[in-house]
Design a protein that fits this description.
The N terminus and C terminus are likely disordered. 29% of the residues are buried. The protein has 205 residues and is α+β, with helices and mostly antiparallel strands. A hairpin with a 7-residue loop joins strand 7 and strand 8. The protein contains 4 helices and 9 strands; from the N terminus they run H-H-E-H-E-E-E-E-E-E-E-H-E. It has an 8-stranded antiparallel barrel with strand order 1-2-3-4-5-6-7-8.
């Protein structure tokens, strides 16, 4: 076999290996309603692949605000605003605004943050009055493929009962949402200062 043929076989093997992993398609929480998901959430912790983890490695006090659809948008759309303090609890605030569109079924969207980055699947897999678990995943468009995903454990308050956190995380793992066996990372909340008013507000639809 000549060198060219060997190279073709090697590239084919690498591409096949990279594309073998696919995003999961979990069912949204059975009790999901957009009204219940709107408002301010605090990230208690996450399981995240390397790309997103590298981007957020300097984040403290991470939170998520979900806003109702803007005028003229479908009633099932929403806006997700991620927020964190950079490098310290008192560091500069970094915001990333994502559009939640194409809801089908309720509780599952496509989310897009930047025009140059493909959209990701975004699903609310668990939802209660004071907690939520979301799963987002995208197929990478660089290198040899593969996926990038994140499981977010959220709370209406900056802290959460560890037993609740463990139960929510185990539920996500039981759904097979962590195929790479990545470690759970608690969000750095020590020293964070949060506004006391409207922390758990839910905008009206």
């Amino acid at each position: 076999m000549d060198l060219y043929a060997k190279l073709v076989l090697l590239i084919s093997a690498l591409v096949s290996a990279g594309n073998a992993e696919e995003c999961k398609l979990p069912k949204p929480a059975e009790n999901f309603t957009l009204e219940k998901f709107l408002g301010t959430w605090y990230e208690i912790g996450k399981v995240q692949t390397a790309g997103g983890a590298a981007y957020q490695k300097e984040c403290y006090c991470t939170g998520l605000t979900v806003e109702p659809p803007q005028e003229g948008r479908p009633p099932t759309d929403a806006t997700a605003i991620s927020k964190c303090n950079w490098e310290s609890p008192s560091g500069d605030v970094r915001l990333a605004t994502g559009s939640l569109t194409d809801s089908d079924p309720a509780g599952h969207w496509r989310i897009k943050y930047f025009w140059f980055v493909p959209s990701s699947g975004f699903t609310v897999v668990a939802l209660g009055d004071n907690y939520a678990v979301t799963y987002d995943c995208m197929t990478k468009w660089w290198g040899w493929g593969g996926i990038g995903y994140c499981i977010h454990i959220l709370s209406r308050t900056p802290t959460q009962d560890p037993d609740v956190t463990e139960r929510l995380l185990q539920g996500a793992l039981d759904m097979g949402l962590n195929p790479q066996g990545l470690n759970y990372t608690a969000t750095r909340m020590e020293g964070c200062q949060f506004e006391t008013n409207n922390e758990t507000s839910r905008p009206e639809l």
